[in-house]
Design a protein that fits this description.
Layout (H helix, E strand, L loop, with lengths): L1 E2 L17 H16 L5 E7 L12 H16 L6 E5 L5 H13 L7 E7 L2 E6 L2 E9 L5 E4 L2 E4 L2 E2 H10 L4 E7 L12 E2 L8 E2 L1 H10 L9 E4 L9 E4 L4 E3 H12 L6 H14 L7 E2 L9 H8 L32 E6 L5 E5 L5 H4 L7 E4 L4 E8 L2 E6 L13 E10 L4 E5 L5 H11 L5 E5 L7 E5 L7 E4 L17 H7 L1 H14 L11 E7 L6 E7 L17 E2 L7 E2 L4 E8 L5 E8 L5 E4 L2 E2 L12 E2 L2 E3 L4 E4 L8 E2 L5 E10 L4 H8 L11 E3 L3 H15 L13 E5 L3 E10 L1
Parallel strand pairs: 2-3, 2-4, 4-10, 8-12, 10-13, 23-24, 23-25, 28-29, 30-42
Antiparallel strand pairs: 1-3, 5-6, 6-9, 7-8, 11-14, 13-16, 14-15, 17-18, 17-22, 18-21, 19-20, 19-22, 20-21, 22-41, 25-26, 27-28, 27-31, 31-37, 31-38, 32-33, 32-36, 32-39, 33-40, 34-35, 39-42
Helix pairs in contact: 2-6, 4-5, 6-7, 10-11, 12-14, 13-14
């Protein structure tokens, strides 16, 4: 065991169990208050295991521990001496349980904050006491031993962990489990943190320990956040720019770095779902309380009941609907990173950049700028993984820098030579790999790598059920619709069929790089609503939180009805929809909407101008800028029957990006206008027929809106320069059913 510095605040947000929204409001409120308020002590036990004996190694568990440690220390004020980490060979069953009792059990007092984190394999095992039931378990480093030809596994039962957490004398307990229990028969794409279930015996010491725990007084009601909430889902870890990490841990810590928590917990849950989806996985985080074997039938029924509208719902549990307490105190600000070290010259600064959106980090370019609370600017000079080196700008009378100062994004520099990266699966034969590499090389802006060796966007592989067919898959192993070749078709022909889809996927990658809800300095708020009766139903809300004061972000939300809010909200087919966008800045802002539907087909919002001579033949329809005046609110589309946005079938998953700029989208509208539209296609939200041209024009427009180009002569001409004062990009995802 070693006690190392680690920092906590992990918390609030995450997860979505199939639990009612009001339950999450209650859980999130308690958790935020626990971490934010002064307390006698904050304790953490962090466990990560990559290297298991005689089992395929994992890659991201030690990074998870580091992500949590840096978050807890620099973002939420944990003391290094109060954080214990167990990694690799230290993380045996005996050491983990002893460390829990010694570091947490003996030290924690009422009102202390306690965080427990585990990253590693999970599995399922049968117990002799209940041979017909499989039990979830965490897999420590000393997985199993052999005694008299009978395999004995040293697993830690999920039930054991829950009882340990409940035995602590404080209610401010949160556990994070980046693991899963059901291993798929085949794994495509990202690594899975689950072992096949075992019929072996559980170590007698573990059963005795569990028996002892059941005799203890259980006073705590912990929050246990798990990487998955459905049995068939897998906790996955991704390969990023120079490091691997658990998707759940990375998405959680990144969100907590960047955002001051929003008014409603479901907003944060939706952001988490968005992030995991963009990282290539549809896993849904969950509250492990729902899986506990010790729940009463009434409690289990309440947790499994369908989500209800905010109010005294949630199975009659009567949770409060006042959302104000969900906000953290103002002194906790959002950030993209922290100053981790300062070289002797006082000018070269080392940064930890875990708060940048993961899809942006890989392309975060030299000369990007970040600011300190004291207004000094840092200019990025190099980056490796999550760490970077920067130099302080020459500012007269600048304050001396200190380790631990938070840094916020000011200018994002992105290269223009970005590619869509396709990984070919290692299950392909050598000749298939050669053909695939050759075929993809025929596309501009497409590059290929070996799956698992470098970061990628999608995977090209054989279909498991029909090995003579090829297709394009997400990193989470899901087949992208309409990307499969015919049975027995040559690799090159299948790849050639992908041309339109590759263009759309590449375009989506480009507009996702604009996401900056956390760092934008344009005060904007966007609400996705179902038009229903007198009051609209709010599906989800997004706002550039760093620019809003707590009181302004709650004024209107308490007067709207909230639709069921799991991380991916469900919108019924036939719904009439609209966005309500508030511009609370002192400047007019321009708006464009781009997105993907369930078939990964591009869509866009079109604002059509009425022709002056509607009866004239061959009159070309005109597109116009969408602009929102300072202090004004705009509904998108306008609420009239001619331009209504009606959700039609079939069921689909929709991802949409609302992008704002202080300058008109001249290039973007010009690109949109190059395509011929029939009268029938003149709908408010319709197909994006030239997505790549539009995405590239969009980045150019945001670049043109920057007022810093003249000041950044050192930035290469082949880069986009985006100023957080001049743009905002907010993402929405929802399920149509």
């Amino acid at each position: 065991m070693e006690r190392r510095t680690f920092l906590n605040r992990i918390g609030s947000i995450l997860a979505v169990l199939g639990v009612a929204e009001t339950e999450w409001l209650s859980l999130g409120n308690r958790y935020y208050q626990a971490l934010a308020q002064p307390s006698p002590r904050k304790l953490a036990l962090l466990i990560g295991i990559n290297q298991y004996p005689q089992i395929p190694t994992l890659s991201g568990c030690l990074t998870d521990v580091e992500l949590q440690r840096e978050l807890l220390i620099h973002r939420f004020g944990f003391q290094g001496s109060d954080i214990l980490t167990l990694t690799e060979e230290q993380a045996s069953r005996e050491f983990i349980e002893a460390a829990f009792l010694d570091h947490l059990g003996k030290q924690a007092k009422p009102d202390d904050v306690v965080v427990f984190h585990f990253s590693g394999y999970g599995s399922r095992v049968k117990l002799e006491t209940s041979p017909d039931t499989m039990q979830n378990a965490l897999v420590p480093v000393n997985v199993g031993e052999y005694a008299q030809n009978d395999k004995i596994v040293n697993y830690i039962l999920e039930e054991t962990l829950l009882l340990l957490l409940r035995s602590l004398p404080t209610d401010r307990v949160t556990a994070i489990l980046d693991t899963s229990y059901y291993a798929p028969s085949t794994v495509l794409g990202l690594k899975v943190r689950a072992l096949q279930e075992s019929v072996a015996k559980l170590a007698a010491e573990e059963l005795d320990f569990l028996k002892q725990l059941k005799t203890q007084k259980l006073s705590s009601t912990p929050i246990v956040l798990a990487a998955t909430s459905e049995p068939n889902q897998s906790a996955r870890e991704g390969l990023f720019s120079g490091f691997s990490a658990g998707l759940f841990t990375y998405a959680l810590t990144q969100y907590l770095w960047e955002f001051t928590p929003p008014t409603k917990i479901q907003v944060a849950l939706s952001c988490m779902e968005n992030s995991l989806y963009k990282l290539g996985s549809k896993q849904q985080p969950g509250n492990l309380e729902n899986l506990s074997p010790n729940l009463s039938p009434q409690r289990r029924e309440a947790l499994n009941s369908p989500p209800s509208l905010v109010g005294k719902g949630a199975g009659g549990l009567g949770f409060p609907d006042d959302l104000k307490n969900q906000l953290l105190p103002d002194n906790i600000i959002g950030a993209e990173g922290v100053v981790s070290a300062i070289e002797e010259d006082g000018k070269t600064i080392h940064l930890w950049l875990a708060g940048l959106p993961p899809q942006v980090l890989l392309y975060y370019g030299v000369n990007s700028r970040l600011t300190l609370e004291t207004t000094e600017q840092l200019v990025l000079r190099s980056r490796t993984g999550l760490t970077a080196k920067a130099q302080i700008s020459k500012i007269e009378g600048a304050n001396p820098l200190q380790v631990g100062q938070l840094v916020q994004e000011a200018v994002r520099v992105l290269p223009r030579n970005i590619n869509l990266t396709i990984a070919w699966d290692t299950g392909l034969e050598r000749i298939e790999r050669v053909d695939a590499t050759s075929a993809f090389a025929g596309f501009s802006h497409v590059s290929t790598v070996v799956a698992g060796e470098k970061p990628a966007d999608y995977v090209f592989a054989k279909l498991q059920e029909i090995p003579s067919r090829y297709g394009l898959f997400s990193l989470g192993g899901e087949l992208i619709p309409n990307t499969t070749g015919e049975v027995g078709e040559a690799v090159k022909l299948t790849v050639q069929r992908l041309a339109p889809k590759l263009s759309t996927l590449f375009a989506a990658k480009l507009w996702r790089l604009t996401e900056n809800q956390g760092s934008s300095r344009l005060p904007l708020k966007a609400t996705l609503e179902i038009i229903s009766g007198i009051s609209p139903q709010v599906v989800m809300q997004r706002e550039t939180i760093r620019t809003f004061k707590p009181e302004t972000s709650i004024k209107k939300s308490l007067h709207t009805r909230l639709i069921a809010s799991l991380p991916t909200p469900i919108v019924p087919i036939g719904s009439r929809m609209q966005y309500r966008v508030e511009n609370q800045s002192d400047r007019p802002v321009y708006l464009i909407l781009l997105g993907l539907n369930n078939n990964h087909t591009g869509v866009a919002f079109y604002s059509w101008e009425t022709p002056q001579e509607p009866n004239t033949a061959d009159t070309k329809p005109l597109l116009k800028q969408v602009v929102i005046a300072p202090g004004e609110t705009l509904t998108l589309p306008q609420t009239n029957s001619a331009s209504e946005w009606l959700i039609s079938g079939p069921a689909c998953f929709c991802e949409q990006q609302l992008i704002f700029s202080t300058a008109p989208f001249s290039e973007t509208l010009a690109a949109l206008s190059t395509v011929k539209y029939s009268t029938a296609e003149q709908r408010p939200i319709g197909l994006l027929l030239n997505p790549l041209d539009v995405a590239q024009a969009l980045l150019q427009d945001l670049h043109n809106a920057s007022a810093l180009k003249a000041e950044m002569n050192g930035t290469a001409a082949d880069s986009y320069i985006l100023d957080v004062n001049n743009w905002a990009s907010i993402s929405f995802s929802f399920q149509v059913a």
